[in-house]
Amino acid sequence: MTDPQSTHRVLLVEDDIRLANLIVDYLKSHGMHVEVERRGDTVLTRLINYKPDIILLDIMLPGMDGLTLCEKLPDYFAGPILLMSALGSNEDQIKGLELGADDYVVKPVDPALLIARINNLLRRTAKPPKVESHCLSFGKLSIDPHTQAIRLGDIEVDLTSHEFELLWLLASQAGQVLSRQYIYQYLLNIDFDGKDRKIDVRISRLRKKLGDNIETPFRIKTVWGQGYLFAPEAWTS
Prior knowledge:
Layout: E1 9-13, H1 17-29, E2 33-37, H2 43-49, E3 54-58, H3 66-72, E4 81-85, H4 90-98, E5 103-106, H5 111-124, E6 136-138, E7 141-144, E8 149-152, E9 155-157, H6 161-171, E10 177-178, H7 180-188, H8 198-209, E11 220-223, E12 227-230
Parallel strand pairs: 1-2, 1-3, 3-4, 4-5
Antiparallel strand pairs: 6-7, 7-8, 8-9, 10-12, 11-12
């Protein structure tokens, strides 16, 4: 049996037993450790004991569908999510990516392509963004890069790893407009294609957690046609 500590760990969420067995066999033949979950509503509990590097997530699942689960996962899991579905419409793919998925493949997927997509996502997330050694402080907001602790006044703000990485990038260059292309290259090591919404979704979640105004943001501002700006003066209240 493959040692789960010596290779990439994959959680496959798939209720089609035959397909799941085929995927497991192929991934194991490429040196990956794989565990299978057949219901969507038991995945979050499964993450308590199994710490995967990546999740392969089917959309049509009993208990909880993959899109609903995809929206919940960032609060429990910081790694990449690869959606798999027989639903191949652009609308389904866009919705999945907007909800937090990192990539999307249409079933049946060629096994070699699946391995390539998995390896690509794992490469993207292998190196965390560079951080300075000191804490950042803006009014009532404090950011500790070592513990990833965020405090806003007397409140401790709970962020996912992805959200923290984005906040640190913006805050460490406070007062400067960071383009989407720059953010995508820095955090994801890919070019911004003009359509991907992953960073926009993370910005929206950051705003909610940090008490920003969703309709007219004043803490993490959108500079139309340019990018995002962390306002250093907006944290006094």
